């Protein structure tokens, strides 16, 4: 019987042939969604598609893009935001 965490139908099941001739079921982990800009909703480039568990294991430099509002805004929204801020000065 599988572990309780694998008894859900949200995990994909793959039947694998074992070297001894038997068969086993492997449970594929869920693939995380991509990060999105909170203003326009576009995908943020430079960040991997990973679940929160996998993201926690990454280096800090790979968790976010090295610019202002790194993992929250896409580059075009940031450029527009900086233009607006410069015009109000």
Give a topology summary.
Layout: E1 12-17, E2 23-28, H1 52-57, H2 60-63, H3 75-88
Antiparallel strand pairs: 1-2
Task: State the gist of this model.
This protein has 89 residues and is an alpha+beta fold. It has three helices and two strands; from the N terminus they run ββααα.
Structure report:
It is a single chain. The chain contains three helices and two strands. Strands 1-2 form a two-stranded antiparallel ribbon. It has helices spanning 52-57, 60-63, 75-88, and strands at 12-17, 23-28. The chain has two domains: 1-30, no CATH class; 32-89, no CATH class. It is elongated, with a radius of gyration of 20 Å. A hairpin with a 5-residue loop joins strand 1 (12-17) and strand 2.
Question: Keywords, please?
Answer:
single chain, alpha+beta, 89 residues, 27% helix, 2 domains, elongated
- The ordered string of helix (H) and strand (E) elements is EEHHH
What's the alpha carbon Rg, rounded to whole Å?
Answer: 20 Å
Give the strand content: 5-15%
Helical stretch tally: 3
Give the termini separation.
Answer: 66 Å
């Amino acid at each position: 019987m599988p572990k309780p965490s694998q008894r859900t139908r949200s995990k994909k099941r793959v039947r694998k042939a074992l070297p001894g001739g038997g068969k086993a079921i492997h449970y594929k982990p869920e693939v995380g969604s991509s990060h999105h800009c909170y203003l326009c909703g576009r995908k943020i480039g430079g960040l991997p598609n990973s679940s929160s568990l996998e993201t926690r294991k990454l280096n800090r430099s790979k968790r976010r893009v090295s610019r202002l509002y790194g993992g929250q805004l896409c580059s075009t929204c940031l450029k527009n935001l900086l233009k607006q801020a410069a015009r109000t000065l």
